[in-house]
Amino acid sequence: MSAKPEGEIILAVPSKGRLEEQSRKVFADAGLPIERPGGARSYQGKIAGQSYIVVRFLSAGEIARELVRGNLDMGITGTDLIHEASRNGPDKVIVAKALGFGQADVVVAVPDVWLDVSAMSDLSDVAADFSSRHGRWLRVATKYVNLTRRCFAAHGIAEYKIVESLGATEAAPASGAADLIVDITSTGSTLKANGLRVLEDGVILKSEASLVVSRTRNLSERRQALLDRVLGAFRAD
Predict the structure, then answer these.
(1) What end-to-end distance do the CA atoms of the chain give, in Å?
(2) Which of 19, 20, 28, 196 is deepest in the core (most CB within 10 A)?
């Protein structure tokens, strides 16, 4: 991503789906309606009358990574993705405003048939003797590799293998691709439909869509003032 021009604030919003719709509504309600002149295939946008704001349409995951790296000034993304982007991701940003949509939990879920596994301590016991019983480590399907590693380390679980999920993570245990999962859930209905349940202490993180500001060190006084102007529109509501 190219360097930020002096005097411009780079804002990123999700590029498609409900997150895009809700993000644009939030800005419209703040008096800053986002336009996408090139249509759904365009990754550039603008806010009428606010030429100092450069709008980019990116995936929520990319927005989180670029905010942590300091390549964006502000953006809308899930707090789960900020935590996943980097171990020190939360230290690299400021969550300016929780937006009230996109609420979901990152959870550890196991098959319902694991009757003796109800908490992370039980999972630790299972992981410890799984190799001797089955000749392999536990397989954990997830898109949240960093969050999974930090959570399992905190519970002293080392005997496992991550299977990075590129599709429907909830289906991995039933298909035999993994033994359990770490995934995001809002209602739990998809987990239940796939014969999975969340461990009693298996909520790793509660997340929601938020307006996030990068802690950019080289922000000039002018650009800081412009950024504060945008944030002021949200504080006013």
Answers:
(1) 32
(2) 196
Q: Which two tokens stand for residue 29?
A: 């309600």
For residues 196 and 108, the answer to whether their CB atoms sit within 8 Å is no
Q: For residue 145, which of 87, 200, 95 has the smallest C-alpha distance?
A: 87
Q: What is the per-residue pLDDT across 67-126, written as a single tens digit (0 to 9) for each?
A: 999 999 999 999 999 999 988 899 999 999 999 999 999 999 999 999 999 999 999 999
How far is the C-alpha of 76 from the C-alpha of 136, rounded, in Å? 41
Beta strands in the chain (DSSP E): 9-14, 34-35, 44-47, 53-58, 74-78, 93-98, 104-111, 138-142, 160-164, 180-185, 196-207, 209-214
Domains belonging to the chain, first-starting first, are 9-103+208-235 (3.40.190.10), 104-207 (3.40.190.10)
> How many angstroms separate the CA atoms of 80 and 188, rounded?
17
Amino acid at 204: I
